[in-house]
Design brief:
This protein is α/β, with parallel strands linked by helices. It contains 8 helices and 7 strands. Strand 2, helix 3 and strand 3 form a beta-alpha-beta unit. The chain is globular.
């Protein structure tokens, strides 16, 4: 996965609480185990006025012009603001995959579903918890200012607004290390590739009958 160190990104405000993973990426799109291709169907039932199905050409579907991600000023956003309990519901990894495939690199909320939070960190999406008061302020400033951007510094664990106000956030040290070095679980395993190969050679030599 890509390294994450610092981002200055356009912000999109999703002013809804208890957004579950079925709303993030509906169940009919879960047939693929690839990590890509889910972005066009992110928040599908909110973005479009009809019912989406796998394989459909989304460019021909009617858009819900009132939905926040369909508004011109939020096109290209990389930071998503959300309310409490974002990512609740099922454990599908497709939820962070869809957010990332759309272009989001950071989700900021006052709280997250536990499994979604863990899945996000493992897949390279940074979930940031801030207080409700801080979220209220960020939502207010985002709605008030076109082109509102936030600077997210993972090393310093700090969110900085255009006015220079800062908000610190917590992230577990191991997850921070993996994000900053672009290491998912496969990448972590491959760091020990030499040891794995040495074990395989030794195992084949000591029990050759297993490989006949």
């Amino acid at each position: 996965m890509d390294r994450f160190n610092r981002l200055n990104g356009l912000v999109a405000p999703l002013d809804r609480a208890n957004v579950d993973t079925d709303s993030v990426i509906p169940k009919q799109f879960l047939k693929s185990i690839k990590r890509t291709g889910f972005g066009p169907n992110l928040f599908d039932s909110w973005r479009y006025l009809d019912t989406g199905e796998p394989g459909r050409d989304n460019s021909e579907r009617p858009l819900n012009e009132d939905f926040i991600l369909n508004k011109t000023r939020f096109q290209g956003a990389q930071v998503l603001l959300a309310r409490e309990n974002f990512g609740c519901g099922s454990s599908r990894e497709h939820a962070p995959w869809a957010l990332m495939d759309y272009g989001f690199k950071v989700v900021i909320a006052s709280s997250f579903g536990d499994i979604f939070y863990s899945n996000s960190l493992k897949n390279g999406l940074l979930p940031i918890r801030l207080s409700k008061e801080s979220m209220d302020r960020l939502f207010e400033e985002t709605f008030a200012s076109d082109g509102y951007r936030l600077d997210i510094d993972l090393d310093a664990q700090r969110v900085t607004t255009p006015s220079g106000s800062t908000f610190g956030f917590e992230v577990e040290a191991f997850s921070k290390h993996c994000l900053m070095n672009g290491l998912d679980e496969i990448g972590l395993t491959l760091q020990h590739a030499d040891h794995i190969r040495a074990f395989e050679v030794k195992h084949r030599a000591s029990q050759p009958w297993l490989f006949l």
